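Repro:
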Amino acid sequence: MAGSLGRTPESLKASGRSSEKLSLPILQGKIKRDPDGYETELQLIYKQFKASVDLFQQQAALSFSSVGPPDPSVAKDLGDRAMFLAHVTPFYPKQLAEFPSQLTDLLRTSCLEMPSGLRNHVAQGLILLMNRKSLVIEDLLALFLDVQSIGDRNLRKLTFSHIVQTVRKMSVTDPRHKGLQKIVISMLEQEDETKAKRALVTLCELLKKKVWLGDRHDRVAIAICEACFHASPRIMVSSLRFLLDYENIEDDDDSDASDNDDDEDSKPEPHVVINREAVYKANNKGTSSSKKKKQAKLQRAMKSIKKKQRASSENTTSTYSPLNHLNDPQKFAEKLLSRLQTGKSIGKTSERIETRLMMMKVIARTIGLHKLQLLSFYTYLQNYAKPHEKDVTQILAAAVQACHDGVPSDAVKPLFMQIVNQFVHDRSRPEAIAVGLNVIREMCLRIHELMTEELLQDLALYKKEHEKAISAGARSLIALFREINPSLLVKKDRGRPGGPVAKPKQYGEVNVFSNVPNVELLQESDHESDSDDGDQDDDDMELPGSDDVEQELIPDDAGTEEEGEEDSDDDDMNNTEDGSDVDASIGGDEEEDMNDSDEGETDSENEELESEDDDGEASAEESGSKGKKRKIVDFDANLLSADTSLRALKRFAEAKSEQPSLDDNDGILSNEDFRKIKDLQAKKEAKLALARKGFKVPDSDWLSKKRVNPDKLEAHIRHKLTKEQRMELVKAGREDRVKYQSRTAIKQKKVGGSSNKQKEHRKNMPLAAVRSKAGRSKRMKKMKNNTSGNQQRGRKAWK
């Protein structure tokens, strides 16, 4: 072939190749250094590539007709020349303008006939051309998705990773995203199962990597949700599983992990606002046992506040689900329920129990997220709400997830009563009773009207059970109804009244905000800040009504003493109420005792004053004359005190007028105001957390967004361990234990000199000990000699 082109062996050797065979790697390096000097060699190799393609196609046709096996050297030469031309294409854009399309057509038409090595070489060449901007991703996306369905594992891994990485590198605002999504979604809607499966895997991976995430790419989430109705059962199961497991997915990419670590380092810690007086009382006031109780309560309050602030500061992606982007969630849930209900018998389908369970969970998640009305779903769940059903906790979790405040209680009541009757009775197992109580609590948390007074009082009796799981479930149910409707409980279960009695909401009742939430806290911020700083500002801006002014208006001494004590008590009460954020439960007992003692003192003082008034009128007249003299003498001082109180009142009015109000700012709040509202809200939550022993009833929106974990319904239940689990616990307990060895083995392995105990045996004994030992040995030897020659005889028979 070299002779036909007019090339001599010397010229071929000078170009880095012999007359028989080209050295492609050496020629590739020289072409990159001097493209113009090797244009002839490039045309030669390009013609060889075309000839190799024709020869390979002829061999593929012959192998298809069973003439003989193909020659492997042809495929190897074709792959080498394809990679060489892919590397040098950017240096010869005009000469190799048709090469990318020829290589693409080769992979599209002859992919099945190619061996695995040649397919990978051609795919790598196409990826190299796309990286060199000779091809675009739109030209290769559909082709790479098609070749993934062939069955070549290496090729599938190569093309899939290339598609994902290429789309991830694109800009967020790149307009090509819509075209790529259209290609993948159209392939997902095809009837071919293998191609639809690869398209679904691509969409799910890009959604997991948060590339096609958000309202901008909502069509991706909608396509994954619509795949639940695909004709292929494998596609349907894959889509259902992805929708259920999306919230538990963690990114495995190293770059994402490093970014998350940096974000966690830079994330501020939760800001906990606890009153200093509460900390002081927990550490310094009361007995040792009361201090421990106060400290434990303070720690619980701080943990709850930190948890809530951490949850609020986290990104909203923790509760994100592709189901949020459904255009018509009601139609989606009804269609999926109708597919679940189709079958020979009512409530049963031809699908496997695992598939049915996934469909139930997806329907329940959709109902909870969008607060849908699908009343037939609760009737369907009654067929599976039985203790002997497989994975019954997941079915009950789906029932809880489908409950929200927009569902009428009459529709859920049959399901609720079936759970009560099937799980919570005396002949049921302890595990079933515990699960039933937890499910009842979660359902009543979402729909308060389900519970009746008689049923609640019966369930509250389980708090005395010896099983921890049952008693904990009953106590949590009592704690819930202390918050939402304590009137249903008996008096001893209602607890200490710490505030206004909760009123249960009626069906359809919604709290509508007419203003910025918690804006009333901003209006009281001055008073709150003064109470946090101390009592100094309160003393400076005190209203008229001090002890001096009151003494001026009271004529008798007895009255002044009595009023003075009452005023001091009132001032103390006001200071404790205004300047502290401690709840009544921490110091409630102490305050009640003080109030009782104060009331007793005032009653005794009133009785003494009445008895003194009844004794005689002369003393009263004398006291009255003394009071008049005190008025005349202290007139200037009283006038001065009144003047100072008026000045204090003026300063108070001026300070109030200087504060900016919402009306002056036209109701517009600044960023500083919102930060102040956030701090005040945290302070208020701290006070409520300290005042409340039970748990706070969460918002209905938060309950609908949060996924119900089936494992939480089995809290405190001790399951029987398998032999493998028991062996793991045994081995874990032996980790710190030293391996058993006898003393002889330890002595033999010992390295070094003798021990102190061994050295003591070798020490010389004292002289007295040596003499006593020698005398003892002599005596023992003498006794042995005396008894050795005599034969011990028995008793004589004739005696």
